[in-house]
């Protein structure tokens, strides 16, 4: 079974600064997807960024980028120019790409991100 | 339309009640999911439907009964729940593997369930 570990229960950053959230995972599979989801206090889970394991290039979405280290099984999220609206719980998630069927997501415990004005 | 809707938003029920949660999507997705999320915890997978057939049941108690009447709708029927079943129930949908966009799950806002 796959596991996802987020070792930072809470992080705080000043507005406009950069913050990095850590995520490691354990799997014996070679083909999978990794995601960062954001869940603000209003509860709607929103996809921030995705990474396919077969791609060596790190994914980037505007102010959000990842550092994907497949050999180290590490998948960190960098948020640049932090904004008040970035305050939320951030979940790292894993999904298998093997087996041919639809699979659910395996989530880490989450990191609560606080933005200081 | 990239929205997953869930009704009701809030539900309070007694342990002898029967109720249903509903989820709907019109993105043409053929995979749909139920997750349970306790406060300050990550979502935990309950069920997966693929092409309207149940493909994964994560050893969920029988007091939770999923149903997928068509490709747009997903229900979760609740009966004889326990107070520890109180949680946020999230529905999600995605394309099935092999189709474009199959790697992203879209989540609904959830139903906050309280069992008295």
* Average predicted local confidence, pLDDT of chain A: 93
Compute the gyration radius of chain B: what is it? 14 Å
Q: Number of helix segments of chain A?
A: 0
H and E string of chain B: EEEEEEEEEEE
| C-alpha end-to-end distance of chain B | 36 Å
Number of beta-strand segments of chain A: 12
Low-confidence stretches of chain A: none
Uncertain runs of chain B with pLDDT below 50, 5 residues or more?
none
User: Most extensive interface: pair and counts?
Assistant: A-B, 25 and 30 residues
Give your account of this protein's structure.
The complex is a heterodimer of chains A (117) and B (116). Chain A is mostly beta strands. Chain A has strands at 3-5, 10-14, 19-21, 24-26, 32-39, 46-52, 60-61, 64-69, 74-79, 88-96, 106-107, 111-116. Chain A has no helices and 12 strands. In chain A, strand 8 (64-69) and strand 9 (74-79) form a beta hairpin. The N and C termini of chain A lie far apart (41 Å). The mean pLDDT of chain A is 93. Chain B has no helices and 11 strands. Helix content of chain B is 0%, strand content 55%. The model of chain B has no long low-confidence stretch (mean pLDDT 92). In chain B, strands 2, 4, 5, 6, 9, 10 and 11 form a 7-stranded mixed beta sheet that branches. In chain B, strands 1-3-8-7 form a 4-stranded antiparallel beta sheet, with no helix packed on it. Chain B has 116 residues and is mostly beta strands. Classes of the chains: A mainly beta (117), B mainly beta (116). The A-B interface holds A 33, 35, 37, 42-47, 50, 52, 91, 95, 97, 100-110 and B 31, 33, 35, 40-45, 48-50, 55-56, 58, 88, 90, 92, 94, 96-98, 103-110.
């Amino acid at each position: 079974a796959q596991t996802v570990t987020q070792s930072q229960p809470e992080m705080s950053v000043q507005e406009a600064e950069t913050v990095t959230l850590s995520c490691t995972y354990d799997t014996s599979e070679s083909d999978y997807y990794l995601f960062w989801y954001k869940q603000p206090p209003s509860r709607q889970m929103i996809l921030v960024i995705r990474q396919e394991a077969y791609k060596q290039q790190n994914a980037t979405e505007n102010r959000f980028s990842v550092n994907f280290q497949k050999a180290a099984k590490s998948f960190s999220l960098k948020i640049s120019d932090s904004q008040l609206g970035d305050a939320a719980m951030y979940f790292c998630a894993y999904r298998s790409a093997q087996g041919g069927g639809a699979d659910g997501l395996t989530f880490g415990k989450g990191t609560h991100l606080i933005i200081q004005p | 339309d990239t929205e997953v809707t869930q009704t009701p938003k809030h539900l309070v029920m007694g342990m002898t009640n029967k109720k249903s949660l509903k989820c709907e999507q019109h993105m043409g997705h053929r995979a749909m999911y139920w997750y349970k999320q306790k406060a300050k915890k990550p979502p935990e997978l309950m069920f997966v439907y693929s092409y309207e057939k149940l493909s994964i049941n994560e050893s969920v108690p029988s007091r939770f009964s999923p149903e997928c009447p068509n490709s747009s709708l997903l229900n979760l029927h609740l009966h004889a729940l326990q107070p520890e079943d109180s949680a946020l129930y999230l529905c999600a949908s995605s394309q099935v593997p092999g189709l474009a966009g199959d790697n992203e799950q879209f989540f609904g806002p959830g139903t906050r369930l309280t069992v008295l």
